[in-house]
Each structure stands twice: as structure tokens, then as C-alpha cells.
Amino acid sequence: MRFLRCLYIHGIMLYMMKEIDLKLQGKIKRLTNNTFKFDERVGEGWFSAVYFLKSCEIAEKYKPNNIVTMQFFQKNHAVLCGTDEAIALIKTFAKEPKSLEVYSLKDGDKIAPYETVLTITGPYQNFGFLEGIIDGILGRRTSVATNVYNVAKAARVSGIQKPVIFMGDRDDHYTQQAGDGYAAYIGGSTAQATHAMNEWWGKQGMGTMPHALIQLFEGDVVAAAKAYHESYPNDDVVALVDYNNDVITDSLRLAHAFGDKLKSVRIDTSQNMVDKYFFKHEERLGRFDPRGVNAKLIFALREALDQEGYHHVKIMVSGGFNTEKIKSFEEQKVPVDMYGIGNSLLKVNIGFTGDNVILNGEPQAKTGRKYQPNARLEKVDD
Predict the structure, then answer these.
(1) Is residue 151, in this structure, part of any structural domain at all?
(2) In Å, how far are 4, 277, 297, 325 from 300, measured between CA atoms?
(3) What is the CATH number of the domain that holds 182?
(4) What pTM value is reported for the model?
(5) Which residues contact 223 (CB under 8 A, 6 or more apart)?
(6) CATH (domain of 115)
(7) Is the distance from CB of 209 to CB of 224 less than 8 angstroms?
(8) Based on the domain organization, do 235 and 361 belong to the same domain?
(9) Cβ(86)–Cβ(137) under 8 Å?
(10) One domain, residues 328 and 231
């Protein structure tokens, strides 16, 4: 299997626009139970808060015939994700899952604060121990999906979607890659760094070259790119150009060496570094922060490539990008063609709550909470 397959940039743009539209129209098919790899200890209560386990034991002993409805909600405008995973969890580990009636929204649905996204009705002892796990699934997946959606939205200008590549492999525990990759896909990223990130939605990882490859060739980015191209001749030539902290010089060297074969260059300048361009052109310094990947540097790179006839070479940026920085770049019309983002997309900033709100067909909930019916919920088949 090839390592980190590169994708053709214009193809990504068109594909992403189509996929985002499909997701927002709620046309993404539900994932099946076979998609997920759960730890079998979930069924033993190993991952459940002990008070839930004890409550299930008490319910079984004293109130075995009670039927409760538990509803789940959160407090933000968000893009929902994790419902398929939560449903699969219920079907896999709930006691007598066919005794439960489940209604749910779909992954990719836009949701409002306090909107009910999932309800479970049945004997409490059959599913109550899963409450905290479901909260965690929905919270993490929805956070990532919403983060990516906001970034993708910021990178969509005049109806054209600039690709957002999910590069979160180094910012999180590897066991989370499949779920976070799927959540990123739901949010609007259809290009991701590892195969695991693509596992649930059926694609392969993509990428260019790391700094480590250039280091092996003693900092010679052209030699590294040639070795890459000779090893993967069917891949587009997309080269990392900040290794020597001289992105314009190295981009032009690559363009001279590869000509039309050079599809894109990626700039990943450290946020505590100032590119050599500004030392060569101090007159271009002004009231802005020249460190890292900044607008002035990208404008200068685009100008240098165009002046020598390399209009076809696209520019990808990464390192420290989030929604606010992308918005700033797009407002300034910085000539970026793709964004690579990692850490900022993995912030878990949305929390879900599960509440018992109906008991034996009658309203019964803690003060301040009540049953919130939602006509958008769909019944989940057994």
C-alpha cells in the first residue's frame, strides 16, 4: 500500500464542495455496527462511571419494570457527529437492545443549543450505564466536526472551497485517529494525513514529504523531491519548502528543476522563525509580525513564481492555522490554495448531557430539565 498518496488539487476542490453539500443536506449514509472496533470491556462497565453501574443494579432490584426516556443535548450551534457510533454502541452493549426505542438525528446535521439529538427509551438498567460513554462520543466527535466545519467555511470564498487537509496525527493519541478522521470528514475535510483517519469513510491517507526526508538529503530539497518522484512517479510533486527557512529560493529551485511537474509547494515555517526573504528585503518589513507563515511571505512567493512563469504551482500553508487565521488570510485575499491544519481542530469544546426526562410515560426530570421533543429525530431500526 502506498504511503501518503498525494491528491490532485483541483480534484480535491470539486470533491470537497460536493461532499460538504451532501453532508449539509443530510445525505450521508449511516455507518453500520461493523465499522466500529469497541473494547469488549464496555459491556462489563469498565468505562462507565461507578454511580451509573450502581444505579443500574438498584433499578434492576427495585424498579425493574420502569420505562424511562433519556435525551441528549448540548449548548452550542454545532455540526453533529457521533450518532452512528453511539447507536452502534447501544446495539452492541445494551442489555436486550431490542427492548429499547432509539430516535436520533444524523451525523452532519446542524444543531442548535439545547436541541435534542438522541433519545433512548426502555428499562434504565438495560442502558443507563452507557450514558457517560455516549456523552463522550458525541462531545468529541461533534467538537472535531464543528471545528473543521468552521475552518472549511472560512476557507470557502465566492463559492469555491479551498481544501482543508486534516493533519492531526501528531496532536492526539493514535487510537483516536479513525473517529477523529471521520468527524473531520463530516465537518468538511476530505483529505487527511493517515490511512486510519480515512478508515470509516473509505479513502486513503494523503501527504507530501516531511522535513525528515529533506534532512536525509542534507537539506537539498530538490534532491529529496527527485527521490520522492522517482519512488512514487504517479504522485503529484508537492514539495515542502521551509526546511532551509528560505521558501522563495527553494520554491524557485524546485520549479526550475521540475517545471510543469511541480504541482504545489507547502510552507510550514515555525512560528518563532523569520524567513530569509525579510532579511534580503528589509524594506518590506512593517507593522506586522514577520514570523511564521504570514501573508506578506505568501504574497511574495506567489509574485516570485508568477514572474518566472510558474503560474500553475499551487501554494499550501500549514503550521498554526485556525479559523481566525484563515479568515484573516481570506479577507486579505492571500493567494493560498490549500490549508493544512492539525492541533486547532482537535479541541474538545462541546459537551453533551444525558438526562432522564420521562418515567413510565409521564414527565419526570430534575428541576431545570424537561423533555424537549424534536420533530427532526428519526427512529433507528433494530
Answers:
(1) no
(2) 29, 9, 5, 18
(3) 3.20.20.70
(4) 0.87
(5) 217
(6) 3.20.140.10
(7) yes
(8) no
(9) yes
(10) yes
3 within domain boundaries: no
Closest CA to 153 of 26, 21, 29, 315: 21
Residue 259 and residue 225 in one domain: yes
Residue type for 54, please? K
Which residue reads 427512529 in cell numbers?
379
Report the number of distinct structural domains present in the chain: 2
pLDDT over 50 at 168, yes or no = yes
Q: Residue 55 burial (CB < 10 Å; 0-12/13-18/19+)?
A: middle
Whether residue 237 sits in one domain with residue 101: no
pLDDT (tens digit per residue) in 63-117? 999 999 999 999 999 999 999 999 999 999 999 999 999 999 999 999 999 999 9
**217 and 91 belong to one structural domain:** no
What is the average pLDDT value for the chain, to the nearest integer? Answer: 89
Confidence of residue 32 (pLDDT cuts 50, 70, 90): confident
Please check whether residue 146 is in contact with residue 154, taking contact to mean a CB–CB distance below 8 angstroms: no
pLDDT digits (tens, 9 = 90+) for 292-350: 999 999 999 999 999 999 999 999 999 889 999 999 999 999 999 999 888 888 889 99
Same domain, 202 and 321: yes
Cell of residue 60, nine digits: 434492576
Residue 31 lies in a domain: yes
CB-based contact 77:83 (threshold 8 Å): no
Q: Which residue has the cell 504541482?
A: 263
Give the per-residue pLDDT at 343: 82
Both 138 and 219 in one domain: the answer is no
Domain assignment of residue 17, yes or no: no
Q: Are residues 215 and 229 in the same domain?
A: yes
Other Cβ atoms less than 10 A from the Cβ of 207: the count is 22
DSSP 298-354: HHHHHHHHHHTT-TT-EEEEESS--HHHHHHHHHTT----EEEE-GGGG------EE
| Structural domain boundaries, residue 372 | 22-144+348-379
Neighbour-count burial for 238-270, b at 16+ CB within 10 Å, e otherwise? bbbbbbebbbbbbbbbbbebbeeebbbbbbbbe
What is the number of other CB atoms lying within 10 angstroms of the CB of residue 217?
A: 16
pLDDT higher at 197 or 136: 136
Dihedral of CA atoms 315, 320, 326, 330 in degrees, nearest 10, equals: -50
